[in-house]
Specification:
The complex is a heterodimer of chains A (about 425) and B (about 220).
Chain A: H1 2-43, H2 62-65, H3 68-76, H4 78-84, H5 87-95, H6 109-190, H7 193-196, H8 199-209, H9 211-234, H10 252-258, H11 263-266, H12 269-272, H13 281-288, H14 303-312, E1 314-315, E2 320-321, H15 344-350, H16 355-359, H17 376-385, H18 393-406, H19 421-424
Antiparallel strand pairs in A: 1-2
Helix pairs in contact in A: 1-6, 3-4, 3-6, 4-5, 13-14
Chain B: H1 2-28, H2 88-97, H3 106-119, H4 121-124, E1 138-142, E2 145-149, H5 177-186, H6 200-214
Antiparallel strand pairs in B: 1-2
The chains are: A mainly alpha (about 425), B mainly alpha (about 220).
């Protein structure tokens, strides 16, 4: 009896100890990963992702490729290792186009190990994800697709049944008509009243008889046509509300609205020139070399962003540009006739007019459209009421010139800009 | 009988008035004012330039583009060539040799502030802490529904108080004129080149403003 109880007691002891140990291990492990996550997010995400190549290589599998001690050394100061001639380090450095990884001399061994633990944890999750995650996503998507298809099928079937019923009735009616045709014609010829007996004919007859009503209807019709015609003629050449289909589904709502990218980040010409300018694709690539929107396309590159890559001949896998770029043919929305001169920088820089004053709430437009009419009247209306900002060297010179004139000094055309090339050669 | 007829006329009269009004209202309020077409145009040739616009297709050139690259080795008038290559050694050399030609003035700083706000703050944040709007969680609601947008990897902070290290050695708050200029010109890591968006003078103004942020 005693023996058994002592054996049981020992067993219980060992079990409880191992349980405690296990608990302690999992506890410490959980902490590691959490601290690692914080560190990873603050120090590493600028260049690294666990699952995909960003600036640096994808980190998944790094613990299989290198042992932990080596990794700790590498993460702390990779350049020192390269300089010391560590063959693995030199090879890795060269494989990644000699890109220098930031040295993190401020991190302790434990902290670096925490980061590694976090990467391993993420790696394990990512390894499960393709099986579980994408299947889930796929299931969710196919669920969506299924309901959509089922509803669509039901709709088609119902529509088909309705069409069949209608066609049947039409056929029956037509058969009746054919059967009665002869009789009907004869009857109609015999008695005209037969036709006038139909409701519509009766109504038409009553309508034609009522001269006032006829007059009123004609008046309404003329007024309507006149208004419609007047509007149409006034809007000849006015493209207000023009919203063409663009080659890329670019959303100003996302870029200027949600992302809060300044208008001039892309349309820098508005500061410097007559034209606000359409950004060249290298400006898109400033962000889209990293942003691929793959979260919404099952890990694949967004088809719209792929169009930018095609335009600049960029290979996202090697992160290299080819030499066969093809321009994106955006459709021009705002088109001032060539006989009117308009200068963006004069309005944006000198007058300080907000982009939205003329272009409307672009930051809410999913698709860009012309907000203002851009007619001469529209320009003039604004010019009549806008006060000039005279805090400007141009007006200093102007006032100076007037002072000289008042004093009776002579002034030549050259003194007031008569020698500027653009006065004649514009 | 006549009374009956009159009532009928009144009814049909009122009916047609209502119908006409409704029709007018419906037709005049059609759509949201947006259209895929430019509508009627009179003398379209007066809208189109005789010379080619830079963004127009052009069959006179092999690649079909009007805006051609200048021939290799040529410099536009007033163009300053940047004599440093895109490599770590050249970056370090720029850091040692390059100095801002601009004097620290109120105007230059104000310009630098405005330029930083337009071209840099979207990632680096208004205060250079690396917390610009695109580095944060955000979502959009549009015709495709509500969805979250990808966050851009946040750059390290410039501020002294954050003591963030640069990926090419040293602290972000100690980056010199030449190093910042080199980075604006070529870009680095996730940052692209901003040379096409900023003129040399503007780049120096931004550099000047970044130095202000480094002090924080």
């Amino acid at each position: 009896m005693r023996n058994i109880s002592s054996v049981l007691g020992k067993l219980a002891k060992t079990m409880s100890i191992s349980l405690m140990l296990l608990f302690a291990v999992t506890m410490s492990h959980a902490q590691d990963v959490k601290e690692g996550q914080t560190l990873f997010k603050s120090k590493c995400t600028t260049c690294h992702s666990v699952t995909k190549k960003v600036v640096g290589p994808a980190l998944a599998g790094m613990t299989q490729r290198h042992d932990e001690e080596w990794l700790v050394k590498w993460i702390r100061n990779s350049q020192a290792m390269v300089a010391a001639g560590d063959p693995t380090a030199v090879k890795l450095f060269e494989e990644n186009n000699n890109l220098v990884m930031t040295a993190f001399t401020d991190l302790s061994d434990d902290q670096i190990k925490n980061i590694i633990a976090y990467v391993e944890d993420e790696e394990a999750k990512a390894a499960q994800a393709p099986a579980g995650g994408s299947a889930e996503a796929g299931a969710a998507q196919s669920d969506d697709a299924n309901t959509f298809m089922i509803v669509g099928l039901i709709a088609i079937v119902v529509l088909a049944v309705v069409i069949i019923i209608v066609l049947n009735r039409v056929i029956r009616t037509l058969e009746k008509v054919i059967a009665n045709n002869q009789a009907a014609i004869e009857a109609a010829q015999a008695r005209n009243e037969m036709i006038t007996e139909s409701r519509f004919a009766k109504f038409a007859q009553a309508f034609v008889k009522n001269k006032k009503l006829v007059g009123f209807t004609v008046l309404m019709l003329v007024a309507f046509l006149a208004v419609a015609g007047w509007n149409t003629l006034w809007n000849v050449g006015v493209h207000q509300g023009y919203e063409p289909v663009q080659p890329i589904k670019f959303s100003h709502q996302i870029h200027a609205g949600v992302n809060q990218i300044e208008c001039q980040y892309c349309h820098g010409g508005a500061f410097k020139s007559k034209n606000a300018s359409i950004p060249s694709a290298n400006v898109c690539m400033n962000c889209h070399n990293t942003v691929t929107a793959s979260d919404h396309y099952d890990g694949e590159l967004s088809p719209e962003i792929a169009k930018i890559y095609r335009a600049v001949d960029y290979n996202p896998d090697t992160r290299e540009y080819g030499n066969n770029p093809k321009p994106i043919q955006w459709v021009r929305v705002h088109n001032l006739p060539d006989f009117a001169y308009f200068n963006h920088s004069q309005h944006v820089v000198v007058a300080g007019v907000e982009c939205q004053t003329c272009h409307g709430p672009v930051e809410t437009m999913e698709e860009i459209y012309q907000y203002s009419p851009l007619t001469m009247k529209w320009c003039i209306d604004c010019h009549r009421t806008t006060e000039v900002n005279t805090d400007n060297a141009y007006y200093d010179q102007l006032i100076e010139a007037h002072e000289k004139l008042k004093k009776g000094e002579k002034m030549t055309a050259a003194m007031i800009g008569g020698l500027e090339c653009g006065k004649c050669h514009y | 009988m006549t009374e009956n007829m009159l009532a009928m006329n009144k009814k049909s009269f009122l009916g047609s008035v209502c119908a006409a009004l409704a029709l007018a209202a419906v037709i005049s309020s059609c759509g949201d004012g947006k259209t895929r077409s430019t509508g009627w145009e009179f003398s379209r040739n007066m809208y189109d330039p005789i010379a080619f616009n830079p963004d127009q297709p052009n069959e006179n050139f092999k690649n079909g583009i009007t805006a051609q690259l200048p021939p290799t080795g040529t410099n536009p008038i007033g163009f300053e060539r940047f004599e440093f290559a895109n490599s770590l050694e050249e970056y370090e050399r720029a850091g040692r040799e390059l100095q801002s030609p601009l004097a620290v003035t109120k105007e230059n700083l104000a310009k630098g502030d405005a330029l930083f706000h337009t071209y840099c703050a979207v990632c680096h944040g208004k205060e250079g802490k690396g917390d610009g709007p695109i580095t944060k969680e955000r979502s959009v609601t549009d015709s495709r529904g509500t969805r979250s947008l990808e966050t851009f990897p946040p750059p390290p902070s410039y501020q002294q108080s954050d003591a963030a290290s640069s990926s090419r050695g040293g602290l972000m708050s100690e980056l010199s004129d030449g190093k910042i200029y080199h980075t604006i010109y070529y870009g680095h890591n996730s940052m692209g080149s901003h040379a096409s968006q900023l003129s040399p003078e503007e780049r120096w103004q931004v550099v000047m403003y970044v130095h202000e942020l480094q002090k924080k």
